[in-house]
Amino acid sequence: MSGILNTIFDKETIECCIHFAGLSMANGRARYNLSFATKFCSSAAKYLQTNIQYPKYDKIVSDALPTYMEYYMNKYLSKNNYKIINQKNIPGLANRMTVYSEYYKDINAIVNLPCVQQESITIDDLDQIIWYAFKG
Predict the structure, then answer these.
(1) Are residues 5 and 50 in contact, defined by beta-carbon separation less than 8 angstroms?
(2) Residue 11 belongs to what H/E stretch?
(3) How far apart are the C-alpha atoms of 3 and 42, rounded to whole Å?
(4) What pLDDT was estimated at residue 1?
């Protein structure tokens, strides 16, 4: 059963969670809560014992991630690189998926570095380290 679940929990799952679990209506407009949806998928994947890990999208982590990308990947990014900025020409869900795809890719790049793997740091661990370091 675990193999079946591993194929189900992917990008489409996040998109589906954002669309349904993360959808709320505010002032008659759809609002997609990426933070809630990714936290839900992360917890569900752990509970269902899949091999897929989802980084939880968070404002604090998204603000700090460019600093970690610079340090670990020698990649210089704007502080707003992982920000969800509503754009008139991009629908809300597509915009969030674009931002989350970059966020996901870059967190995975850090976690997969040999120096990080040597410490057995998971996506959840990195998320917590960044969150606690920058929360104050």
Answers:
(1) yes
(2) helix 11-20
(3) 17
(4) 36
